[in-house]
Amino acid sequence: FLQVYVAAYRNRKLQLPEDPSDLYEISKDKEAAMEVEFLAHREIFKFLDKAAITTLRKTPNPWRLSRVTQVENAKIVLGMLPMFFCTIIMTLCLAPLQTFSIVQGLTMDPTITKSIKIPPATLPVIPILFLMILVPIYNHLFVPLIRKLTGHPTGITHLQRIGVGLTLSCLSMTAASIMEVKRKAVARDHGPLPISTLWLSIQFFIFGVADMFTYVGLLEFFYSEAPRALKSMSTSLLWNSMALGYFLSTILVKLVNRATKDRTRSGGWLAGNNINRNHLNLFYLLLAILSLINFCIYVVVARRYEYRPQSPPVEASKVRVDSNEKAAAKIKVEN
């Protein structure tokens, strides 16, 4: 990929040919003994096509000339990056939901029955439990039903699935903000215990459904769209997205506290150890707004994304057969 970008930059002053077939690609006949991948040219990110402009050099320099397939693979990865960045905000929302909910749970009634209580530290397990229940329901009931309506093998496309999850994450943050307003009102009027911890399961349930759509859809999207040589590495993009989300969440909390330091008695929306004096509801509302803005950006980039052609890879044996058939046809014509 680096060679493609370097070659495109070096050839930036060259004129693209009118016919894309004039761009450089190795001959299938010449490379019949090799297992190579061939991708057709697409009319996107045309500035990268300059990396495949042929020159008069006898020995192609890979830092000046790239195959069309190499260029197309670079286009695929470049097209996937906006979706990658748009999903970071979802983990940015998940991180404070997991941590601050524990603090909220300490001020609420953990009792379910006389003998069963919910330890606040176990609250982050709730989305996982919901996932264990919802994923089989989604795969065995929802997908077959939607498949009949849309005709798509997975019911809805990967990008649509990610978009549904991003929408639900926004709703989850909104529900968390409303729940925090209710919790503070009860704590202010009646003390710390009259409200049940189970109320927090609402926001976790919504986020668990969002996980099922976005994270699973993102994993499937990366794997199906990534070039063949990067199939296994593409799965790491999901974990990179989550890691960046957790890291940026820490930065966001510090920025919010610094920006609101002089506007609250606690020294910031999230500062101090007394959550009843904080403004967690405003922070959740901020995350909901950020999620909504992120979703709008995602819709724009997702609508412009072009899925890669899902053609079977060209195997060496198949290329060799095609080459033999062409040779036989040529001999027949000459005779």
How is the secondary structure organized here?
Blueprint (H helix, E strand, L loop, with lengths): L1 H9 L57 H19 L1 H19 L18 H26 L7 H33 L10 H25 L5 H4 L1 H24 L20 H25 L11 H19 L1
Q: How do you describe this structure in short?
A:
With 335 residues, this protein is an all-alpha fold.
What does this structure look like?
With 335 residues, this protein is mainly alpha-helical. Helix content is 61%, strand content 0%. It has helices at 2-10, 68-86, 88-106, 125-150, 158-190, 201-225, 231-234, 236-259, 280-304, 316-334. Helix 4 (125-150) packs across helix 6. The radius of gyration is 27 Å and the shape is elongated. The two termini are 46 Å apart. Residues 312-335 have low confidence and may be disordered.
How large a portion of the residues is in β-strands, by DSSP E? under 5%
Low-confidence stretches: 312-335
Mass-distribution shape: elongated
- Termini gap: 46 Å
Helix content: 55-70%
Radius of gyration: 27 Å
Give me some keywords for this one.
single chain, 335 residues, mainly alpha, 61% helix, disordered C terminus
